[in-house]
Amino acid sequence: MSFVKIVIRKMRSGMMSYGPTSIKRLLWEQEYSGDKWNFAYHSMSDCVYEHLEKHAAGGSILDLGCGTGNTATELAMNAYCDYTGVDISDTCLGKAERRTQQNGRSAKNRFVRGDFLNYVPTQFYDVILFRESIYHVPPLCALPESGRGIYSENGDLGPRRAAFAQAVDDAEYYQVGI
After folding, report:
1. Cα separation of 27 and 19, whole Å?
2. Distance CA 62, CA 111 (A)
3. CA atoms of 129 and 174, how far apart (whole Å)
4. CA-to-CA distance for 89 and 112, rounded, in angstroms?
5. Among candidate residues 94, 96, 141, 95, the one with its CA nearest the CA of residue 116
6. Helices and strands, counts by H and E, the chain
7. First and final CA of the chain: distance in angstroms?
8. What confidence tens digit (pLDDT) does each residue in 98-123 have?
9. Residue 66 — φ and ψ, nearest 5°?
């Protein structure tokens, strides 16, 4: 690969993560409008679900960077009472909504288009989920102080209830305390 191609690829990748919302939206639409990400459409055997079910405990889930709705449609139906998925891509959200309808979860799941770095929740959540999207959070990005206004106060960990980030490199999951 030529030096120029490497530089262009790195710049594109940086813009997908750290660029202005309008540019990120355009780039993610291009990513998901083709077949490139079809391999990731099903993740039912992902070990995150066991941990997510434990921490959600029938409560609410906020999935930041929800993609095509894997978590919304593959998590055990009784593991949560309501789910909000946020993604910047209309293509992803359309797929997520279709999957939700096909799985009979329209009453429990809702999807919001937006840049998850700027998303302002409209309710408290028991679990905030970052899967692969954690890799698109700028290194020095400040998350809301103590999770105030986002986290539910019920549960054994209070405001640190559970936010998960998938570490793809070694397939381990880390609980991220806010």
Report:
1. 10
2. 10
3. 11
4. 10
5. 141
6. 5, 6
7. 40
8. 999 999 999 999 999 999 888 888 88
9. -70, -15
Structural contact between residues 153 and 32, judged by C-beta atoms closer than 8 angstroms = no
Mapped onto helix, strand or coil, the DSSP state of residue 115 is coil
Q: Do 62 and 151 contact (CB within 8 A), yes or no?
A: no
Q: Per-residue pLDDT tens for 157-178? A: 333 333 333 332 233 333 444 3
The single-letter code of the amino acid at 122 is: T
Cβ neighbors of 128 (< 8 A, separation 6 or more) are: 61, 62, 64, 147, 150, 151, 162, 163
What are the structure tokens assigned to 72, written together? 């919304």
Three-class DSSP labels, 50-94: HHHHHHHCCCEEEEECCCCCHHHHHCCHHHCCEEEEEECCHHHHH
pTM of the model: 0.76
Give the CA-trace dihedral at 12, 16, 17, 19, to 10 degrees. Answer: 90
Could you give the count of Cα atoms lying within 13 Å of 9 in the half-sphere of its Cβ? 6
